[in-house]
Amino acid sequence: MQNKQLPNVHLRKEWDLRVRTWFNQPGRKLRRRNSRIAKAAKIAPRPIELLRPAVRCPTVKYNCKVRAGRGFTLEELKATGISAKYAATVGIAVDYRRRNRSEESLALNTQRLKEYLSKLIVLPRNAKKRTAEDVQAYKSAAQATGQVVPISTDVAVEAPRAVTAEEKMAKAFVTLRMARGEYKSHGVAQKRKAELKERKANSVKK
């Protein structure tokens, strides 16, 4: 038998003091669920979620997808005929930063607001102003879960057709570049036209 060093392995590293455990995850899950149920019961029959606008995802890759946004713009609320302060009291989310870049988005979200307001039952805070119909409608109302007005993602699919000669001649890159250039130089071009018109008018007077 050879003379070798006696094994003295240092394996007591106290690893349990240097790891993150998550044994309270099931308990927290149950607590969150009970909190959601309690909150829904407290605010009933009001909807659980706020009404959100339908917006398109950013970038060319995802802008074909429609999803729920942060809140409605002031322009959309104005087109519907309600104020931002009133909207916050009836379960409508308001976003003061978003802007409407197209007529389509403005029309779509205005329609969503009008549909929501048509289903809305507002009970006056003053008990003297409440009618029997208001109280009965309030009691018989069912609490809405999820999106109050679902966002429609239906896309109208066009039937296959032959490409026209005009479409074959079209150049998408050139069209976009021209449109971008006209947009950037619009103010300068208008200013030049006004100056030229003024010069012609002055020359005619002389």
Q: In short, what is this structure?
A:
With 206 residues, the protein is mostly helical.
Please describe the structure with a list of short key phrases separated by commas or semicolons:
206 residues, two-stranded antiparallel sheet, 2 strands, 49% helix, extended
Query: Strand content of the residues, in percent?
Result: under 5%
Q: What is the CA–CA distance across the termini?
A: 125 Å
Largest sheet: 2 strands, antiparallel
Average pLDDT number: 91
Low-confidence runs (pLDDT<50, min 5 residues)? none
Q: What structural class is derived from the secondary structure elements? A: mainly alpha
Topology order in helix (H) and strand (E) letters: HEHEHHHHHHH
Radius of gyration over C-alpha positions, nearest whole angstrom: 32 Å
**DSSP summary: helix tally:** 9
- What would the principal axes of the Cα set say about the shape? extended
Report strand order across the widest sheet: 1-2
User: Helix coverage percent of residues?
Assistant: 40-55%
Describe the structure.
- With 206 residues, this protein is mainly alpha-helical.
- Helix content is 49%, strand content 3%.
- It is built from nine helices and two strands.
- Strands 1-2 form a two-stranded antiparallel sheet.
- The model has no long low-confidence stretch (mean pLDDT 91).
